[in-house]
Write a structure and sequence with these properties.
Blueprint: E1 29-36, E2 42-49, H1 52-68, E3 72-73, E4 92-93, E5 98-99, E6 101-105, E7 108-112
Antiparallel strand pairs: 1-2, 1-3, 4-5, 6-7
Bound molecules: zinc ion (ZN).
């Protein structure tokens, strides 16, 4: 007899929208930490776990390990808002008479001229009083 109306037994293994209310593709708890290795390299570590308590435990262990191996936290400095003489307007390169660009790298920042010299090298002018 063929009384298979809408009662499919094995055909569909995926219940449409029934189970898994949160698709657990991404771990719900994660921690990002930036650290400096003893040699000075800047690492960003990400820890993930299915529960916040778990990832915090991992963080504590990681912290212990890092301290034991002379790693240090990488200070995420928020780009020094208004300290000395950073009043918006950039200094002007006296050779090119153009506003200079603020550049930053490795936690330091400086003003740099975006123009090239006639020999193809970048302008090396640096304002003295505005570090
Ligand atoms: Zn210049």
């Amino acid at each position: 007899m063929t009384t298979n109306t809408a009662n499919s037994t094995n055909g569909t293994t995926a219940p449409t929208g029934a189970a898994a209310p949160f698709g657990f593709t991404e771990a719900p708890a994660s921690i990002n930490v930036r650290v400096l290795s003893p040699a000075g390299f800047d690492y960003q570590l990400t820890m993930r776990a299915s529960r916040v308590g778990d990832v915090l435990n991992q963080a504590q262990e990681l912290e212990r390990w890092l301290l034991k191996h002379d790693w240090t936290p990488a200070a995420s400095r928020p780009a020094a808002p208004s300290t000395t003489a950073t009043t918006g307007e950039p200094p002007i390169c006296p050779y090119h008479n153009k506003p200079m660009t603020r550049r930053s790298r490795d936690g330091r920042s400086w003003w740099s001229c975006n123009e090239k010299l006639s020999n193809g090298e970048w302008c090396q002018y640096r304002p003295k009083d505005r570090a």
